[in-house]
Amino acid sequence: MENNVSHSSxxxxxxxxxxxxxxxxxxxxxxxxxxxxxxxTLTICNPTRKNAISGSMMVQLRDTITQLEQWQQGKAVxxxxxxxxxxxxxxxxxxxxxxxxxxxRQMSILMQYNLKRLQNLHLLTVALIQGKAIGGGAExxxxxxxxxxxxxxQLGFVHVRMGITxxxxxxxxxxxxxxxxxxxxxxxxxxxLNGDEAKRIGLVxxxxxxxxxxxxxxxLKCKQWLQQYVKGAPETIRAIKAIVVSAMDxxxxxxxxxxxxxxxxxxGGPMHRNALSQNxxxx
Length: 283
Ligand SMILES: CC[C@H](C(=O)O)C(=O)SCCNC(=O)CCNC(=O)[C@H](O)C(C)(C)COP(=O)(O)OP(=O)(O)OC[C@H]1O[C@@H](n2cnc3c(N)ncnc32)[C@H](O)[C@@H]1OP(=O)(O)O
Hints:
Blueprint: H1 2-21, E1 28-34, E2 39-45, H2 55-69, E3 76-81, H3 92-95, H4 101-120, E4 124-129, E5 132-134, H5 136-142, E6 146-150, E7 154-156, H6 170-178, H7 180-189, E8 192-194, H8 195-200, E9 206-208, H9 215-226, H10 234-249, H11 252-266, H12 270-277
Parallel strand pairs: 2-3, 3-4, 4-6, 5-7, 6-9
Antiparallel strand pairs: 1-2, 7-8
Helix pairs in contact: 1-4, 2-4, 5-6, 6-7, 10-11
This protein binds ligand LZKTLF4L.
Subcellular location: Cytoplasm, Cytosol
Pfam family, one: ECH_1
Catalytic activity: (2R)-ethylmalonyl-CoA + H(+) = butanoyl-CoA + CO2; (2S)-ethylmalonyl-CoA + H(+) = butanoyl-CoA + CO2; (S)-methylmalonyl-CoA + H(+) = propanoyl-CoA + CO2
């Protein structure tokens, strides 16, 4: 009961922020779900501003994540930027109009809400980074399960150069991903890493060998890379993802309880029985 009340008051606060932010219009997100493969693409589309995220896009991201949450056949979503660049963070045209403490609070609350829901999705999420992922764009990548870069792409938490800190959740997530020392290195220097550098410190999973000027080739190579993770059934992937999400948020004793609960949703189910009947060998 208490949880429901706090959930609905959070939703009401988010709805009120959305009313303010939807007036800062430019760009959009484009979602393309492919039921046959279970792999969707989500394009950050504001190319004349290097795919900066405007107020209206922050609102649209909330609604797009709702669509993904409802996609039962889905297994994964690839997030990438239109026209060869990932995302240049907050759209300056929006940001310049919300420089009050209240404006900053509202943007942070809305984007933290969006990125937390993105992180909690039942789907595997991949940030496919071409060109630049900077500021809020770099923060967005930290809420994804996997990060892939093309060789010439650059990823940087450049906030310090603007006299600000991350505010979309990327600072805290970076510490969880890399530990405090490496996170401080990136956050206080504002340095930008290329694919090889980011892979060396474990910030990205892989550097794609692809023709960076050809988005069809970049997407193809990304989908080929993803194949190794989407062979399971949607229900199994969802259950595995739920264990990982729970382990990130909970203490070990609570995560173990949750793991038992999730395990029992698949144990003895039709797929499990079928696998047992086949006497599989995992050679
Ligand atoms: C908590 C999040 C935080 C926030 O909300 O503020 C952040 O995200 S901090 C980071 C904010 N982002 C920036 O400071 C990006 C500034 N832009 C650049 O550094 C460069 O434009 C770059 C590296 C993204 C691309 O450089 P490049 O030489 O390839 O292209 P141009 O500079 O010519 O850019 C083309 C065109 O895009 C406009 N642009 C780029 N980024 C943004 C942005 N974030 N918001 C609005 N517009 C953006 C740029 O001004 C150019 O427009 P033009 O009219 O042609 O001058």
